[in-house]
Amino acid sequence: MNTDVFGLALMDYLNGNYTEDIATYSSLDEQDTIPVPYLFRTYDQMPKIEQKALDLCKGSVLDIGCGAGSHSLYLQEKGIQVTALDHSAGAIECCGSRGVKNTVCTSVLEYRNQKYDTLLLLMNGIGIAGKLELLKTYLEHFKSLMLPNAQILLDSSDIIYMFEDEDESDGDWKPEIETYYGEVDFTMQYKGATSSLFPWLYLDYNTLNNAASDAKLKCELICEGEHFDYLARLTHL
């Protein structure tokens, strides 16, 4: 059974039943948490990269992987036409309860026949590609959702630092693993419920740039964050 752990946590918080955060377990042998209140942050509480992305949004916006809808709500309040999309039914219910007017509950690859000026993928939103070999499939699909002068705004992180030795000085060093080092498998747990295992993709900028070029998209580095993260913009060539 594929439990909507993320959606359960969001709705609990919204209904005043917040007692714990989401626990995450990854193939990197790391346990971490997603603080549920952070998913309900305001613009002023967001990282600079997210603020910059929201400032760059134009025209009609598709917020892919919208979560609790914090980005969509901010854009909506600014008078921007935004559609919040997520495959989590709980997330979409949360967005609607918070006042997001336009919502879609589906996988982005199954979403068709609409076009936008801005595709927004924040909180490492491009991670939904899961595997590097699927990245071109996602980029090609994103192109089908873009109007002629549209843009894709996305952030990601280069997690090479998690593999490097402290005495490693060669800037071209790569970990000795068979797959791309940014491919990570996750499960989430919340109040005794466990999600299915799902892949998530962390992209270094050069790899994103090469994939964008292969998909005939222009890639631009907008800014970098404080912890190996960055914001990029993709546009039609």
From TrEMBL:
Transmembrane segments: none annotated. The keyword Methyltransferase applies. The keyword Cytoplasm does not apply. CDD domains: AdoMet_MTases (cd02440). Keywords: Methyltransferase, Transferase. GO terms for molecular function: methyltransferase activity. InterPro entries: Methyltransf_25 (IPR041698), SAM-dependent_MTases_sf (IPR029063). Residues 61-104 form the Methyltransferase domain. GO terms for biological process: methylation. This is Methyltransferase domain-containing protein.
